[in-house]
Fold this sequence. Notes:
With about 500 residues, this protein is an alpha/beta fold. The protein has twelve helices and 21 strands. It folds into two domains: about 1-320, 4-Layer Sandwich (Metallo-beta-lactamase, Chain A), CATH 3.60.15; about 350-504, no CATH class. A hairpin with a 5-residue loop joins strand 2 and strand 3. The radius of gyration is 24 Å and the shape is globular.
Amino acid sequence: MLITPLWHTEFLVDIKNEENQNIRILVDAWLSDFVIGDLMERATKIKLDHQKLSSIDIIYLSHSHIDHIDPYTLVEIYTYANPILLLPCTLLYMEEVFRKYLPNAHIEFLFPKKTFQFRWIELVGYMFPQENITNEDDVMMLGISNQDELLFAEIDTIPNEYDEEVQEGLFKIFDRREYKTRCYLASRNELDGQLRIYDFESQKRKSFRSEYIANRKEEIRAGYEKFEYEEYIDVPNIYTLSWFVRGFIGQWLKYPPSLSESLSLVSIFPLDEIASMETDIARGFGYDFPQKALLPGRQYKVENASIETGRKECPIGDIVQNTDLDIKNPEEKRIYATSQLIPREFTQSEIDDAKKKILDILNHRFLSYWSASPVASLRSALIKNSDGAYRILLKEEWFESIVFEYSFASSGFLEIPFDAKMNFDEDYWLSDILDFLDWKQELYSNFWHILDPKKMYRLWTCLGANFCNNDLVLAKYNFHFSQAMQWKKSEDWVMPILGWIAKN
C-alpha cells in the first residue's frame, strides 16, 4: 500500500483489492490554509488539482472538529468529484448538513467494529472507552485492509495503553488475519507544547524545548517498560507481531506566517525527532520493528516489514512549502489579543439576552458536564474555595462586568453584583463567549488571550466538548458551508481577525 501524508492527520491511502484495482481513500479533509476558529494555519499548503480529484474513491471524516472536517475543502472536492462520504456514527446528527451542501454525495455511516466493504476493501471503525471526558470523545479510529495488508490509524486520539481490555482489543485488530503487512499509523499531537513555545524568548525557548522533550522521552519509555511489569506480562503486545511497522504523522497547527513568518517555523518536537526517539527506546527494550516519520510531500510504500520513502508527489494536487526561510529560533514572541477577540459592541437589550443565554448554558450544560467529570470536578473546586462559591466573570468594555455564582447555598448559577474584591475562578470577555455560542470561535481560540496558569477554564472546555454541544457544531458548519458555497475561502474569515490582533 501507499500512504501519502498531507500534514496534520490528513492522509491518502492507496490499496489494491483482489482484482488488483487501486482504491484511494482520503482520511479527513482539512486542506485549506486555516483552522477557522482557532486562527492557526496548516504547516503545509495544498493546491488541489481538480482533474485529479476523481481518483478519490472514499473520503472518511473521523470526528466533528473543523481541522478534520473543512467545508471549504469539501465543497471544492465535491464540485469536481463524487467520492463516497463515509462518516462515523458520532456524526449522525450532521447528516442533514452534509446532504444539504453536498447533495450529490453518497453518504454511508460507520458503526464501531462494523465493516464497510468497498470493492473487496474493508473499512472498520474503532472506539475505545476511557474514563476522562475529552474534546476528542467522538473520534472514530479507522482500520483499512485487504486480505494481506492492514492499516490502523489513530487519527486524533490514542487507545489507552494502560487499559488491559483496550490493549487486548487492539491486538485482535492486528491479529485478525495472517497479514503480510501490519501498519500502525500513529498521530503525535504536540499542540500544547507547540503553542507554549511561542511565548518564550530565544534562549528560554531552547531550555523549554529540551525539558519538554525529556518529559516526552520518559512517557515513551513508560509505554514500552510496562510490559516488563508483572501485571502486564500476559497482556497481548502488538509490538511482538510479525510484519509489524509503525509510521508517524503530525497533529499540530502552526503560528500564522501573516503575523510572523519566522516564528511559524519554530517547532517544539519535529516529527522526525519523535520517530527517531521512539525507535531508539523501542530497541532498548528489545523491539526492532521499523518506525518512520511520514512527512508531507512524499509517498511512502508500506510492504511486508518495511516503510520505503517514495517519490515526491501529492496525488490530488501540489504541495506548496516555503523553502526560502531558514530561521530556526527567531527572537520575537507571539502576539496576543488584548481585549475581545472579535470586536463588537452591545445594546442593553443584547446584554440582557446574553445573560439569559449564558445562564441557561451554565445550569443545563456546565453543571452536568463538570458533575460527570471524574477529574477537576466542580464539587472539588467548591470545596477548595474557602468561601464555598464558584464565580465566573464576564468582562464587557461598555457595560459593568457580569458575575455568575454557584455555591453550596444555591441550587444553580445565579447572577450576583460585581465586586472587584471577589475571587473569580474563571474570567472571559463576554463577546468571546457569545462568539463561541455563535460558531465564530473554537476551543483553542482562547489561547489568543494570556491565560492565568492557576485557573481552569471550565466553561470554555465545556463548550468545546462534542457530545453536549451538537447545536453549536451544527450552527458552525451551516455557516461555513454556506460561505464555501459562495466560493469564499477560510482566509476570508480568518485574516480580518488576525489583522485586528496585530493592530491591537
